[in-house]
Amino acid sequence: xxAKGAGLHWGQGYDPLGHAExxxxxxxxxxKVAGWGDYRAGRIRYHPRxxxxxxxxxxxxxxxxxxxxxxVLGYCGVGWLDGRLEHHVHAVAARRLVVVSDLAEAVRWxxxxxxxxxxxxxxxxxxxxxxxxxxxxxxxxxxxxxRGSVRRSLDDVRRFAAKxxxxxxxxxxxxxxxxAHD
Length: 182
Ligand SMILES: [Zn+2]
Hints:
- The protein is about 50% helix and about 5% strand.
- By secondary structure, the chain is mainly alpha-helical.
- The protein folds into two domains: about 10-95, Zincin-like, CATH 3.30.2010; about 100-170, no CATH class.
- The protein has a three-stranded mixed beta sheet with strand order 1-3-2, with helices on one face.
- Helix 3 (about 85-95) packs across helix 6.
- Bound molecules: zinc ion (ZN).
């Protein structure tokens, strides 16, 4: 993926909504969404009750489905991140939303996942997916950029991530009642 070539910025400057529109997808909030968001046939929906960071991450996730043309069944309506595909899709979105330079800056200021996520304008689930997906090269770059002060913070986040990722991905955790306003 070549962000500059597509006129895009990854990381904190990444605008998933603008990206979606530049790819011809339609994006809108909908109370009919059963979880956080879904995708079907060029249409990205996200739940109106999401926070700004959650909506940003959700749209970024659905953009990846749009790029894959995951049109046949519609996606994310069931089993958000349950399957291997969903996890892969979110890992791609997380890499776009959180670049190493931003992460290095964020972990210099805080070692608490909520604060780090807030600074990066992502939800903690996306932070966890990103941190668990860091490559060896990413780690080396982090160490250099944060001048060695990054280790403890990252270890903390990794521990949180490993503990919480399996349950934090369930849409039921945010207590959305999708049918009330249909
Ligand atoms: Zn999905």
